[in-house]
Amino acid sequence: MTLLSQTQPFNVSHLHFRKQNTHAMNIKIALIGCIILLFQQIKGQEIPNGNFEVWDLYNTWTLEPEYWSTQNNQLTTPVTQDTLAHEGDFAMRVQVLPGFEGGVQEIAYISFPIAFMPYSMNYWVKASVPDGNDLENVTVTASFYYLGQEVYTDMDVMYDSITTWEQRVMIFPPIDVAVDEIRILVSAGFVTPLGGGSWDTWISIDEMAFSNEVSVSNTNIETNFFYPNPCRGTLYLQTVTAGSILEIYNLQGVLISNEQAYQQNDLTFLPSGMYALKLKTPAGESFQQKIIVE
Q: Model confidence over 151-185: pLDDT tens digits?
C-alpha cells in the first residue's frame, strides 16, 4: 500500500493575523504591568511612622518618633509623646522651650524618597497659639525636591489655638514636575533666634498620610465657597455672613490680606499665581481653598 501525503497550502494571511494578535497582546500585557506598577507605587507611598506610634531612645537618651529628626537633647525635649492621641496610643507634640526672651521655635522633620507628588497630605492637629501673629504660629510644611533641588513647597500656617482634634488637608497642585524626595517639617513658636513669644505654644500631629485620590473638584475636601477659579480680578462668594473675614495667603504661608468679606471682592492687587483663601465666620466656622489668579 502506498501512503500519499497531502500538504496544505501555506496561508500568509494567517501568520500576519497571528502576529497582529501577538503584538496587541504584548501591548495589553505592558499596559497591565504599568497599571500594576503605578498601583503599587500609590499604595506604597506612605509617610514613615506617620501615626507616631513607634518611639525610640537615641543618643540623646530621650524618646523620639522613629524616622523623625528633632532638636531633643539630654537637657531639653521639645518633641514629646502626646498620650491624648486622636487614634492609637501616641501623637507627636512639638512645643517651644524657654529662651532668652521667650519661647524659641522648635521643629521636627522627616525626609524620605517619593515616586511622585501625591494628590494631598492629610493630618489631624491640636494646637496652642496664645499670641498668634505673623511671627508666632505653628506650621506644617511639605517641600518636594528633585536631584537635590526644591521644586515645590506648601505650608499650612495656624495662628489660632485648636482645642480639639481637627483634620486638615494640604492639597498639592496638579503640576507636571518630577520629584524624588519630600521633606515634611512641623514647627511651633517664635521664629527669631532670641524668641520672644509665649512658652505655651505647641502643636500636636497625628495620623499624617498621603491621599492619591484624583479629582477635578475639591468639594469632598474643601468647600467651594467662591467663584470663578481661576479668577481674573473679581471674586464672588457664594454666601456671606455679616462680620466674616477673608484671609489670603501665598504658598509660603505668609498672610497677604485680612479684610472684611463681601459678596463681591477685588483681587486685582494680587500678582498672577496660586494662593490660599480662608473664610472665617463669626460663628467660628472656617473654610479654605486654593485659587489661581490670572
A: 888 888 888 899 999 999 888 876 667 889 999 99
Does the structure show a pLDDT above 50 at 6? no
CA distance 98 to 196: 9
Using only the alpha carbons of the chain, give its radius of gyration. Answer: 27
Element (H, E) at 168: strand 162-171
Read off the amino acid at residue 154: D
Select from 133, 142, 252, 134 the least CA-distant residue to 186.
142
Element (H, E) at 74: none
CA distance 95 to 188: 6
Neighbours of 232 (CB within 10 A): 12
Is there a contact between 187 and 138 (Cβ–Cβ < 8 Å)?
A: yes
pLDDT at 151: 87
- Assign residue 238 a region (left: φ > 0; alpha: ψ between -120 and 50; beta: otherwise): alpha
Backbone angles phi, psi at 40, to 5 degrees: -65, -40
Which candidate, 181, 178, 202, places its Cα nearest to that of 190?
202
**Terminal Cα-to-Cα distance of the chain (whole angstroms):** 93
Say if pTM beats, i.e. exceeds, 0.85: no
**Residue 126 has which C-alpha cell?**
491640636
Task: For residues 132 and 179, give the distance between their C-alpha atoms in angstroms, rounded to a whole number.
Answer: 33
- What is the distance between the alpha carbons of residues 201 and 189, in angstroms, rounded to a whole number? 6
Sheet of strand 264-266, all strands in order from the earlier edge strand to the far edge: 226-227, 234-237, 264-266
List of residues 6+ apart from 238 with CB closer than 8 A? 224, 225, 226, 227
- List the grid coordinates of 88: 492609637
Grid cell 507627636 is found at 92
Give CA–CA dist 211/3, Å, rounded.
73
Percentage of the chain lying above the pLDDT 70 cut: 70
Amino acid at 246: L
